[in-house]
Amino acid sequence: MTMLDDLKFIYQKDNQDALGIAGRQAAQLTHQFQLDWQPLSEIKNIVFAGMGGSALAGLLSTTWPGHSVPFEVVRGYNVPVYTGAGTLFIASSYSGNTEETLAALEAAKTAGAQIVVLAGGGSLIEQAKENGYPHIVLPKVGQPRFAVLYSLKAYATVLIRAGLLDGQEVNEVFSETADFLEQATNQWASTVPIAQNPAKQLALELAGNSIVIYAGPMLFPAAYKWKISFNENAKNVAWCNAYPEFNHNEFMGWTSHPVEKPYKIVDLRSNLEHERVQKRFEVTERLLSGKRPAPEIVTTQGETRLQQLLWAVAFGDFVSIYVALLNGIDPSPVDLIEIFKEQMNE
Fold first, then answer.
1. Are 83 and 325 in contact (CB under 8 A)?
2. Global pTM value
3. From the CB of residue 293, how many other CB atoms can be counted at a distance below 10 Å?
4. Helices (H), 113-187
5. Going from the N-terminus, what domains does the chain have, and what CATH number goes with each?
6. 3-class DSSP state for residue 208?
7. Mean pLDDT across 113-123
């Protein structure tokens, strides 16, 4: 028996139940958030401010549901110069204490933006209550990276209240996607042996290497989530990039030095990506054969953009948690990040 089929070993290492949280995340899509708010004036653009896992809902929304007005994710202390009364400003922080997001909130307030807060508590919720900002309190699930689907559902709730999405249609899509995702994640559970478990199989292939994840524009938010998950769950260096940009620069970076590079490559591929993007994967694989490690190809499942996107997100969660276990570490804590934050405040 290998360690990934040893349930006693898994329960000892994963003592905060990251695998269980990953397996239950489909239910986040059916959570009902209440928001008594409507915009004071026409929404002309949207600015979504967040860091790390708290920015992911904004990134995912570029694939689904998309936006009918200009949209930008801000990861930093400032807001775009166009921010004003026609801006819907989303302050997103699971802890509610992210200093960059708090600073961006102050800048948005100064610019006169229409502000909505998404947070699990902390200073953001306190400021929302003090200033009368509409807000949604996110349920507790542990680390921010495990609350991504709560955040996406909360953000969709904001867009519905803003008149930018149809509420009935969105709820139907989330319900169908939750059912689909639950069935998918059951196949990757710790109780499913390696021989029938593609997440465990891929983890065994990737362990011990730095991971590079590639995707087209539709799945790039999932590729970025894979990067975060490998960094924080597996404590493993990982990078990501997107086609077609890859072919205009990074493509050449693989052409020198021996093929035995200390990397593993993961291609997230979808039949719903632009047909030229799909061809780019094929041509790239052929031209770089012998110049880089052969990619591990992950073909996303699902009939819709949202199903494929969230299937990819969830699969990456399981793979990265299993790599953490192969690394002999608990996937949940991110102690060094907390120490960093403390020293930044000294």
1. no
2. 0.95
3. 16
4. 122-131, 148-161, 167-186
5. 3-16+190-326 (3.40.50.10490), 22-179 (3.40.50.10490)
6. coil
7. 97
